[in-house]
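quick one
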Amino acid sequence: MRIHAREILDSRGQPTLEVDLIEGDRLARAAVPSGASCGSHEAYEKRDGEVSWYAGRGVRRLAAWINETLDGKLVPGDQQVFDQRLLEIDGTPDKSRLGANTILALSMAHARLVSKESALFRSFGSGVILPVPLLNIFNGGKHANSGSDIQEYMVAPVGARSFSEALEMGVAIMRALKGRLQRSGMSTAVGDEGGFAPRISSHAEVFELILQSVEDVGLQKDVFLALDCAATEWFQDGYYHVEGKKSSAEVISLLASWVRDYRVASIEDGLAEDDWDGWKLLKSQLGHIQLVGDDLFVTKSALILQGKDAANAVLIKCNQVGTLTETMAAITAARSLGFASIMSHRSGETTDDMIADLAVGLGVLQIKTGAPCRGERIAKYNQLLRIEELLGVDARYAGRSAFLSS
Ligand code: PGA
Ligand code: ZN
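structure w/ 2-phosphoglycolic acid:
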């Protein structure tokens, strides 16, 4: 099998890897994303460190090395066998020899190459359920300089009857929010994940703006809010720095007030990645809503299996772990605990849309892929529209059932 890797750019203008696999007259291509608020336990992302090229973040040498050492050396076939071979070639616990970016690009391209289905999602499983989109309509944290410590404010249109209707609801809310921002003289420029990002003075201001926008379009009964606090970013010198200096228990009280006042039904990374005791306290107090581990679990089954008392849902990011096989193992681990899974993009994305196929094929009932804005986010939503069309009368929309606690 011929392998050709190259350096391309992601949605932030940072280099990332794209791989072509060629076998006979078939060509399969895949590109990998990259995070900004990364968990420290994520698999290693390899970059060249050549300071004169993209300030060290280039991958052109990595691509050349892949082409020199792996071209003609791998055989397509069973996905698990192929992924296992990649892990053997890498041979390190953190994937630092090949890099998780190399491993994932090869793993994804291989899945496309060997798929015998006319629609890729069918090669991942027999799923017919379209996921609830968690649309990130206001950006903060490391994804924008809005001044919000909360990284993502998402709307979940659970009351829609179909995925296409859910997407339309998301766009209607985004349009209403845009109108409100414009009327207040605030910026309508967007952040890394396509949500608005004007300078704001408090979290309460954003919550009010979003809930009023939901009301403007009459969707109060159909939509609830989901947050990604990315609280690892808040944690420094033993304290959380959010609305002042706080202990874990004090952060939990703050989260509880948002749940009570602003119809928040899902909180991702409400506490930092290594604060396991805090997470247990969080679950004991707010376990009636969805508590999602992102930096906490970094898509690794072993960590997920330790999380029974700490969370009740898992964010699934393929590049946190490396291969598609390991990604699927993480979903299986989540299911074994009765946890929900949420398929996720990264803040630095490409137009690769495989996560849409993975979500439907694997039966993952929620997806997080940004606002309905910016081409790299829309690429995934459009693929879900195509899948829904293809499934026709067999298509189902996950709706409220996607949330274990609702
Ligand atoms: P990241 O953000 O891709 O920058 O890590 C997404 C998230 O935290 O969920
Ligand atoms: Zn997150």
